[in-house]
Specification:
about 450 residues, alpha/beta, 14-stranded parallel beta sheet, eleven-stranded parallel beta sheet
Length: about 450
C-alpha cells in the first residue's frame, strides 16, 4: 500500500500571541511545519496534504508548491480537518495523520507507527509523561488494549490520573478512516469533531487498533506557547550537538552553541561557546572557530583559525587563514590560502589571494586583490558612487599604506607602493610609488586661539 500524509495546520495558535501562524515559528532556524514535513518525507509518502486555516497565504508561501494544500474554512475539530483532505487521498492508501506542532518527531518513530498494522486497521502514537494536564488520555481495557482516547476537558477525575497521552499522530487505512470519521459526533464540551473518537469507534466495529509508545516523550510534545518553543529549541540544539560530537566535532560547551542549518566538518575541528551555524557550513580539518562567531553558508579550509565575534556569510575561505576578531565577511567573498584579515575589517564581494593581509580597520568591497598584498589600517575601497558599484583591482605584492582611499573603478598593477594618506583615483602602473600627501608645514611658536574674557 502507498502512504499518504495529512498534516493538520489550520489552528491559529492564539497562545503564541503572534501575528504569525503557530506553525511558522522556528526551531533550529526552520519553521515548525517544515520540521514535521521534512521528517515525514523520509517515509517517502505518495502525497503530503496540508490542511490550513489561519494565515493560509503565509503558510503556503513558506512551504512552496510541493504539497496539496486543503483549506479548513470552519475550525470544527481535528476529525473535520481530516475530512477536508480525505477526498484527495487514494482509497488503497495508508493514511498518516499528524498535528503540525511537533517539530521533534522522528522518522523512525513514524515508521514504527505506520508499520504496526498491515492493510486494515488503526494505529495511534502514544507517550507516557509526568504531567498529562491538558492532554488527551489513552484509555486501555482489562487486556491492556487501547479502547478510547479521552480529551482532557472530557476526562473524569479518575481518567485525569492517566499518564499515557495521545500525541495527535494516528495512522489508518483510508477506507477505515473514512468510514469511522463519518460516525464521529460533536457531542462533547467543545462541540467539535474529534479525530481521536475513531479509536473507540474502531473498537466497537472490530477494526484492529494498535498503539505504539514513543521511546522519547520529548519528540511528541506540541508547541503551544513561547515557553514550549524555547524548550523545544534547547532540546533540539542539545540533540544536534550530541550527534556532531559523537561524529568527532569538538564543542567546548554543547549548552552554548546553536545549529540553524547543516554542518560538515573534518577531524579535530573545534567550536567555542556561543557559535551560531546557519544554512550549510563546511569546515575542514583542524579548524578553530572562536566564541561568538556566526557562520552562514560558508566553507572554511584546513588549519584556519576564526577568532571571536567574526561573521562570515556566503564566503569561501582557504586553508591556514586567520580571520578576526570582530571581522565581517559579507556575501560573495573568496579568500585563498594563508589570508589574514584582522579586527574591525569588513570585506564584501571580494577576492583576496594567497598570503594577502588586511590587519585592521578597513573596508574592502567589490575588489579583486592579488597575492601577498598588505592592506594598511584605515584603507577603504570607495566602490559606490551613489548609484552604481564599481570594482577595484589590485595586483600582486602591492603595499597599501594606512588611511588610503581607493576610488573605483581603478586598477593597481603589481609591486606598487601606496603611501599612507593617499587617495587613488587613477590606474597605477607596476613598480610605482603613489602618494598624494600634501607637504608638511611646521610653524614655530604657534599660539592657540583663546576665548575673550
Amino acid at each position: 500500500m502507498s502512504l499518504e500524509v495529512i498534516v493538520l495546520a489550520a489552528g491559529k495558535g492564539s497562545r503564541m500571541h503572534s501575528h504569525l501562524p503557530k506553525v511558522l515559528h522556528k526551531v533550529g532556524g526552520k519553521e515548525i511545519l517544515k520540521h514535521v514535513v521534512d521528517n515525514v518525507s523520509q517515509l517517502n509518502p505518495k502525497n503530503i496534504h496540508i490542511v490550513y486555516g489561519f494565515g493560509g497565504d503565509m503558510v503556503k508561501n513558506a512551504m512552496g508548491d510541493s504539497f496539496d494544500f486543503v483549506e479548513q474554512k470552519e475550525l470544527l475539530g481535528t476529525g473535520h480537518a481530516v475530512l477536508q483532505a480525505l477526498p484527495n487521498c487514494s482509497e488503497d492508501s495508508k493514511i498518516l495523520v499528524l498535528v503540525s506542532d511537533i517539530p521533534l518527531i522522528t522518522s523512525e518513530t513514524l515508521t514504527r507507527l505506520v508499520d504496526s498494522f498491515n492493510e486494515t486497521g488503526v494505529a495511534v502514537l502514544t507517550s507516557v509523561v509526568e504531567n498529562p494536564a491538558g492532554l488527551g488520555r489513552i484509555k486501555r481495557d482489562a487486556d491492556n488494549n487501547v479502547c478510547a482516547i479521552i480529551e482532557d476537558k472530557d476526562c473524569s477525575s479518575e481518567e485525569k490520573k492517566i499518564t499515557e497521552i495521545n500525541t495527535g499522530v494516528i495512522a489508518a487505512d483510508c477506507k477505515s478512516l473514512k468510514y469511522l470519521l463519518q460516525k464521529v459526533k460533536n457531542d462533547n464540551n467543545q462541540g467539535e469533531y474529534y479525530l481521536t473518537d475513531i479509536i473507540s469507534l474502531a473498537c466497537g466495529e472490530k477494526i484492529p487498533v494498535r498503539a505504539v509508545v514513543a521511546a522519547e516523550s520529548k519528540e511528541c510534545e506540541g508547541i503551544n506557547n513561547k515557553v514550549q518553543l524555547a524548550e523545544a529549541e534547547r532540546y533540539y540544539q542539545k540533540k544536534k550537538a550530541r550527534s556532531y560530537m559523537i561524529d568527532g566535532l569538538i564543542i567546548i560547551d554543547p549548552e552554548r552553541v546553536d545549529f540553524r542549518g547543516d554542518l560538515e566538518f573534518g577531524a579535530n575541528t573545534t567550536l567555542d561557546v556561543n557559535v551560531i551555524i546557519e544554512g550549510h557550513v563546511k569546515l575542514g580539518n583542524n579548524v578553530v572557530i572562536g566564541s561568538g562567531c556566526v557562520l552562514r553558508n560558508c566553507e572554511i579550509g584546513d588549519d584556519s583559525v576564526i577568532s571571536p565575534y567574526t561573521v562570515i556569510e556566503d564566503t569561501i575561505v582557504g586553508a591556514k587563514a586567520t580571520l578576526g576578531p570582530f571581522a565581517r565577511f559579507r556575501p560573495g567573498c573568496v579568500l585563498e590560502d594563508n589570508v589574514h584579515v584582522g579586527n574591525f575589517v569588513e570585506v564584501k564581494k571580494s577576492k583576496l589571494s594567497n598570503g594577502t593581509k588586511a590587519g585592521h580597520l578597513s573596508y574592502l568591497g567589490d575588489s579583486e586583490i592579488g597575492e601577498n598584498v598588505n592592506i594598511g589600517a584605515g584603507t577603504i575601497t570607495c566602490n559606490y558612487d551613489g548609484a552604481n558599484k564599481w570594482k577595484t583591482k589590485i595586483g600582486n605584492n602591492v603595499f597599501v599604506g594606512s588611511d588610503t582611499q581607493i576610488v573605483a573603478p581603478v586598477e593597481i598593477e603589481d609591486n606598487v607602493t601606496i603611501g599612507a594618506g593617499t587617495t587613488v583615483t587613477k590606474n597605477v602602473s607596476a613598480d610605482s610609488l603613489v602618494i598624494t600627501r600634501a607637504p608638511m608645514r611646521t610653524i614655530a611658536g604657534w599660539k592657540r586661539p583663546v576665548k575673550k574674557k
